[in-house]
Amino acid sequence: GQTYVALSRASSIEGLQVLRFDASKVVAHPKVIEWSKTLGQITEDKHTST
Question: What are phi and psi of 41, to 5 degrees?
Fold first, then answer.
């Protein structure tokens, strides 16, 4: 949540700097990861069914 909140407060990408970023410190709950995968599948199904 904190990473998202911090980045979402930027009004534009211009001048945005992320210092000392460590991707291993950014984690998501397993249920969120599964939910994200279903969104990708829904999008894929939508594009192939037309």
Answer: -70, -40
Number of neighbours of residue 4 by Cβ within 10 angstroms = 10
pTM: 0.44
Phi/psi of residue 21, nearest 5 degrees: -70, 130
Rounded distance between C-alpha atoms, residue 42 and residue 44, angstroms: 5
Per-residue pLDDT of the chain (50 residues; tens, 9 = 90+): 788 888 888 999 898 888 998 989 888 899 999 998 898 777 666 677 65
Annotated domain spans of the chain: 24-50
Torsion of CA 15, 11, 9, 17, to 10 degrees: -10
